[in-house]
Amino acid sequence: MARNGPVFGGYVLPAVVAAFVAGIALESGHALGLAGALPWLGVAGAALALVVITTLLARRWADVPWRLGQLAPLGLVLLASLCLGGARAAASDPSLEPSNVGQWADGATVQVRGVIGAEPEPRVDYRLLTVQVSAISFNRGQSWEMATGRISVTDYAPETWYTAAYGDTIVATGALKPPGTGYVPPGITGSIERARLRVLTHGGNPVLAWLYALRVLLAESLQHALPEPEASLLVGIAFGLKTPLLRSRLPLFTTTGTIHLVVPAGLKVSVLATLARRVAQPLGRYGGTALSLGVVAGYAFLGGGGPAAVRAAIMGALLVIGPALGRVYDVFTALAVAVLVMVLFEPLVVYDAGFQLTTLATAGLPLLTPPLTGLLRKMMGRLRIVPASAVVAELLAVTLAAQIATLPVLVASFGLISLVAPLANLLTVPLLAPLLLLGFALSGLSLANLTWGGPLLATVTTAGSWLAWPFVAWVNSAISWCAHLPWAAVSVSGGALGLAVAYYLAIGGLIALVRRAPEGKTRQAHSHAAAWPGRRLALAGVTLTLLTTLGASVPAMAAGQAPQVTFLDVGPGGQATLIRLPGGQTVLIDGGASGPMLEGALAAHLPFWQRRLDLMLLTGPRAGNIRGLEDALGHFQVTQAADAGVLHPGQDYLGWRQALARRGVSWAGVRAGARIMLDAHTSVEVLAPPPVLYGPANGTTAASNDAILLVRASGLRVLLLGNADAFALTALLGAGVDLHADVVQLARLPSESLVLDGALSEALAATHAKALVITDAATGSGSRRSRLAASLGRGLSDADVGATLGMTVLRTSDVGTLSLRIERGSWVLR
């Protein structure tokens, strides 16, 4: 028999795993018509029996060609592997479970009992929980039926000490519906939106709970050290955690093909494993290996434990173990092992977009990068216009290889093809490794500073922020700029499965035709590129970053040279006012209804190194006043907080007070007559509510007990009426308070015109102001603004109000953020 080399080039394990995954897909699609696990197991057993028979026959008959003697048993092994994959999928198919909770997902209101099996995902204004169901009740908990399966639950309640967390056993009440039409995680068979939650017991894996808590602490520490959106970007790079602000910006990453920057990836794991091995060299081979494995496993959990993180962790572990055992690391074999472990544990992971993208990209990079690199080097060599053509060709080849390998999944998941991805990755990937290290270092420093404090830690943390911010700002600016280029991406419709299979068959044929570089040389080049590609480009990027970002920060530095009051545009349903003084004191009054909106507004008006708020003032107990302040507590070190208190605190106000207590911020209650000195020339006077709050029989709305503030600065008086109602304004006029002001702020709905009669007209006339700034009215629990609906369209236009009162009327909903500052002895509003 003539031996022609190993079958499949020696990659039998990857072929077997591919067949196993194919079996899972075929079973889920019912392509072969086999129902249940037993038929699949029967076919697999028959195939394995034939393997034994054909192997014995090949040994008995010497004239059987060697290739045929190898291919026949291998083909049967692949068939058996395919059937075993189908059996594994059938055994875990939720639709085959008679007690699966999905059968009751018809919109009826039920109570579901279960355990939160994953870390809650923070979204804008709510948290998304994944609940492993154990029982269901159709009669408000009087009786329970056994149920299985997983559902998603949206929790809009403010985060408090009693908020449900990973491992908690809860009861969720609400309408049980089928999963949404968008992306649904594998295994989710139902959903409850705006659920009412009750925590029964706390539990879960203590190690996982500790790692999840550590992950959140490290992420929050980065948000204290850097402004937004740079903080959220670095959180995504370092930990793969998607904050609400980062989620709102994900379209920028998909448009530019840079989504891999904010998810756990093999490059990040290899960097950490390499660093751990170098640090642990004094511990010897086994000690260093153990430390490296611990680092890789810890990063997988800190990365959220998703499919991309688990895949990267398994391959990283093999990368560490291989040299310790004297074995050569092979990327395809390692990938096959990682995929096999994952699909054995959870077969439905094959339908997860993250799993598909990370698997295809990992397989495609070593296959496609070498030929693409050679082709691009030849093209650039002929052009002779690119100085570092080798580095640029390597970076472009890696980007193109990843796009080509994942194109069908990208089309199916995002419906677009990024045309600007090569440029975006060329500008950002060289900084990925240093950003990863800076993110870990800065998060640790900031966490230590928040925990223990002290001048030395504060100084070192500030220095780290100054070092990291230009790098992150460069990456953020590059992605944003590339995303807004013309034809940055092309929208396409998702293709059929057959087209995807044909696409990959064509790619495989092209790879077979292209002459590849020697395997050892390819691995060495790929490993070198993964360690830190493009040092020269990184140096150039750092230089441009420093010049660009430091130049951009000059206006922010100059803005702090005079007292300034800024009415921030924080979106509908909320208001926020920022006060900055020449001495550096900073005051935030209310925060709006959206944390990400407030973060963006503050980032535009504060220098990146300003991470402290001296005072937070809350004027009313509504979500539109509170939610932004709660979010700002996670981004700034707050010295003191104050509000007027409430008679009957609701969820939002309780969440605010508990958030202050968790972060150790001192609180003070302020009522009429209180004065808060910000510096020698600036103060905030509290004009309302009275020392004894109005009871329900006196106040006409919840806004009767809102705080009314007067800001006094050198040559400037600003009256903040906020949501004050007619009752509060009448009481204020009756108290004989001097309402004289240069500028008055009033909160109203964007479409609400002013009705100049009664207390409002008298109060505005008493101010003798030159300008009236109307911000969005704070809404939410505790607010009763239904009466305003009747006044919409009945009042005067803003122009008529200005003409009647003799003042300029401006709305932040129309003109955006407005800043009031003193220039050359007079105030200017712009």
In percent, how helical is the residue content? 40-55%
Chain-averaged pLDDT? 79
Please list the strands of the largest sheet in the order they lie side by side.
Answer: 16-15-14-13-12-11-24-25
How big is the Rg? 31 Å
Largest sheet: 8 strands, mixed
Distance between the termini: 89 Å
User: Given the C-alpha coordinates, what overall shape results?
Assistant: elongated
Residue runs with pLDDT of under 50 for 5 or more positions: 515-560, 781-793
* Total helical segments: 28
Strands, total number: 25
Structural class: alpha+beta
The percentage of residues in β strands lies in: 15-25%
Secondary structure layout plus pairing:
Blueprint: H1 12-28, H2 37-60, H3 66-91, E1 109-116, E2 121-123, E3 126-137, E4 145-146, E5 150-155, E6 169-177, E7 188-192, E8 196-201, H4 206-225, H5 230-239, H6 244-248, H7 250-256, H8 266-279, H9 284-302, H10 307-324, H11 331-345, H12 353-383, H13 389-414, E9 416-418, H14 421-428, H15 432-452, H16 455-483, E10 489-491, H17 497-513, H18 519-531, H19 535-552, H20 554-559, E11 564-568, E12 576-580, E13 586-589, H21 595-605, E14 612-618, H22 623-633, E15 637-643, H23 651-662, E16 666-669, E17 675-679, E18 682-688, E19 708-713, E20 716-722, H24 726-734, E21 743-748, H25 758-767, E22 771-776, H26 786-791, H27 798-805, E23 808-811, H28 812-815, E24 818-823, E25 826-829
Parallel strand pairs: 5-7, 13-14, 14-15, 15-16, 20-21, 21-22, 22-23
Antiparallel strand pairs: 1-3, 1-6, 2-3, 3-4, 3-5, 6-7, 6-8, 9-10, 11-12, 11-24, 12-13, 17-18, 18-19, 19-20, 24-25
Helix pairs in contact: 1-3, 1-11, 2-3, 4-5, 4-15, 5-15, 5-16, 7-16, 8-9, 8-10, 9-10, 10-11, 10-12, 11-12, 12-13, 13-14, 14-16, 15-16, 16-19, 21-22, 22-23, 24-25
